[in-house]
Design a protein that fits this description.
alpha/beta; 6-stranded antiparallel barrel; 5-stranded parallel sheet; 8 helices; globular
């Protein structure tokens, strides 16, 4: 009997080709688009289609017709609002800079979709991510780098659980982006040349502050002071939700030199300003760890660590402290380690695990 797989179809070329590859491999494939937009007007949904707007539904449905597979739209608005939008807003209110796509992957694209899929009798879920899933000799599942470093998406998947990985297929990880587009063209898929979505799907025009103001209302912090590390007031800022560590643009401070945000203090509504050199550190601390290639960190381990999505990675030694926090001691200083962002650890091609960067 054929194994059944539900493919999360975003209307993009990667998930479309993923559905084709799995059908070719002999799976019983069902296409699903996750409806996660809240109650915006149709025009707004169209404009900000990204991976989850109305245009995504139209494109995914047309691809499913081309591939002759069943296709459905499932409502995950509640899960997305709770686990992604609310989380995003709360983190900014606390002076942190979250990565909502990682939260969406863990709690919506996997946890919610997987549970719904298993209830429908599926054996697996699949996506168009550029990553691979392997079962290691120690019996654990781990995310493995895709064959193309240029599109590798393993960083955003570090938080998946063992149960989720055991029921996940990622066929696109064996191909380059160029090969995927070429294959889509050969299949005459209507999305073969569709551009990749770039921005966070629920943040129009990359305006984070507007989303926070809309969702948090009178809880949004007002203006406060720019200060230096010693607490000297340098000027006034618009509110801490407008800033992130390492930011230089938009500060509007006549300092006579290039200055950057080096710290955000939500308790006092202060934004600390310093030099570029002030952003470099040897030690980074993480909490909320998720281990993947190993069951737990029992002793210090040398890994390659990425502290943001587009970070090339630097070597460090990770060790667990008594309070469960993991300390990362880098061999060379890293720039702008930002509370709320994630540190992801690699051993060769495999994700060891990762956690959320905190102040210390």
């Amino acid at each position: 009997m054929k194994k059944k797989v539900i493919v999360g179809m975003s209307g993009g070329v990667d998930s479309s080709v993923a559905a084709y590859l799995l059908k070719k491999q002999g799976y019983d494939v069902i296409g699903v688009t996750m409806q996660i937009w809240q109650d915006e007007e149709t025009a707004v949904q169209e404009e900000n289609g990204g991976c989850c707007g109305l245009s995504a539904v139209d494109d995914a449905r047309r691809v499913a017709e081309c591939l002759d597979i069943p296709y459905y739209v499932l409502n995950f608005k509640k899960e997305f609002k709770c686990n992604v939008i609310d989380y995003f807003v709360e983190e900014y209110l606390q002076g942190r800079t979250p990565n909502p796509c990682i939260a969406c992957n863990r709690h919506v694209k996997w946890e919610a979709l997987l549970q719904r899929s298993l209830q429908l009798g599926a054996d697996y879920i699949a996506t168009g991510h550029y990553a691979r899933v392997d079962k290691l000799p120690n019996g654990r599942y781990a995310i493995r780098n895709s064959v193309t470093a240029a599109k590798d998406q393993t960083y955003a998947l570090f938080n998946l659980t063992q149960d989720q990985l055991a029921h996940t297929l990622m066929p696109v990880g064996e191909f380059t982006k160029e090969q995927i587009r070429e294959l889509a063209g050969e299949l005459n898929l209507p999305v073969a040349q569709k551009p990749d979505s770039q921005d966070i799907c629920f943040v129009p025009d990359n305006d984070y502050a507007a989303v926070i103001e809309r969702e948090a209302g009178d809880r949004v912090p007002g203006p406060g002071n720019f200060v230096d590390a010693a607490g000297k007031v340098l000027g006034r800022h618009k509110g801490i939700t407008h800033y992130t560590i390492g930011q230089r643009r938009g500060l509007e401070l006549p300092m006579g030199q290039r200055v950057f945000v080096t710290e955000i203090r939500p308790d006092t509504d202060e934004v600390v300003i310093g030099s570029n050199e002030d952003l470099f550190v040897n030690e980074v601390y993480c909490t909320d760890l998720n281990w993947m290639a190993i069951e737990d960190l029992k002793e210090p381990m040398r890994v390659l660590a990425k502290i943001r999505y587009n970070h090339k990675g630097d070597y460090c030694t990770i060790e667990k402290l008594e309070d469960g926090i993991v300390k990362c001691t880098f061999e060379e200083k890293v720039r702008a380690a930002t509370p709320g962002q994630n540190a992801v650890f690699y051993d060769g091609e495999y994700v060891v695990g990762g956690g959320t960067i905190i102040r210390r």
